[in-house]
Write a structure and sequence with these properties.
mainly alpha, flat, 2 domains, 266 residues
Length: 266
């Protein structure tokens, strides 16, 4: 077992136990549970980062294949959700976001081992394109988790069934504001992803074809552009925004699967 693989195994177990601690918050807040969830997740993130550093250093910082893409995505997702959770002081959000990081890791552990040679030469622009794309996907994943929490909390409040979400997050405005900021940053990353992707495609053998992956990403861009326009000019908030966020993220997941599901990489 290599050093990077050992780090990944430790990180996965730390994430899994951290996710269980966050989920336990839905049953009731107990002393030390929040601290344990944060420490386990933070420890996993640090070890995960060490593993990625060991792995990518030997590959000249070029990620290869779906396994490594999923690993980087999980790393970015955990970093973002920890930042959001600590900033808002709403640890119950971890019950929606921490399991997502674990879910990303599961298929990565079942795929081929990392370290395979790249199918084509990497350029600085291609490296930037992949990094921006994965960052944007992680941002939208967190925004989607926030959207799910918003819909559940709204349902509790409308039905006057004030459960643990209402006790931990008493303001729909908080979740709506988080969603807005995350979608703005994700939209910026998505725009840069499209620009750099077109740049790379124009200089590759496939530059003359417009594939389904690009079409799906462009449609997702239109969804989020429409969402931001609706927020700004039509005053959309709440439920409609949450559903559109989830729809746009679903399109981005399809684009990710299309990119790495055939051929193993960009």
């Amino acid at each position: 077992m290599t050093g990077s693989h050992l780090c990944f195994v430790l990180a996965f177990h730390a994430y899994a136990f951290g996710a269980m601690a966050y989920l336990a918050l839905l049953a009731g807040r107990r002393p030390g549970l929040v601290t344990a969830a944060r420490l386990l997740t933070a420890f996993g993130w640090v070890v995960h980062g060490i593993g990625l550093w060991l792995l990518l250093r030997g590959q000249h910082w070029h990620p290869h294949g779906p396994t490594q893409a999923l690993s980087i995505l999980a790393f970015l997702l955990v970093a973002l959700f920890l930042g959001v959770e600590l900033r808002t002081r709403a640890p119950v959000l971890g019950a929606f976001l921490a399991p997502a990081a674990v879910a990303v890791w599961v298929p990565a552990l079942w795929t081929l081992p990392p370290g395979q040679p790249a199918s084509k030469p990497w350029t600085p622009m291609l490296l930037a394109h992949v990094g921006i794309a994965l960052t944007g996907l992680a941002v939208f994943a967190v925004a989607t988790g926030i959207a799910v929490a918003f819909l559940l909390l709204e349902r509790q409040m409308k039905g006057k069934h004030f459960g643990v979400l209402f006790e931990r997050i008493t303001s729909l405005e908080l979740l709506d504001g988080l969603n807005r900021r995350l979608v703005v940053w994700g939209f910026i990353a998505l725009t840069l992803t499209l620009i750099t992707g077109l740049w790379v495609a124009a200089r590759s053998a496939s530059g003359n074809t417009f594939q389904s992956v690009e079409i799906t990403t462009a449609v997702a861009w239109l969804v989020f552009a429409g969402l931001l326009q609706a927020r700004l000019f039509a005053g959309w908030r709440g439920r409609r925004v949450a559903w559109l966020t989830m729809a746009g993220f679903g399109l981005l997941v399809l684009s990710f699967v299309g990119t790495y599901g055939r051929g193993g990489g960009p």
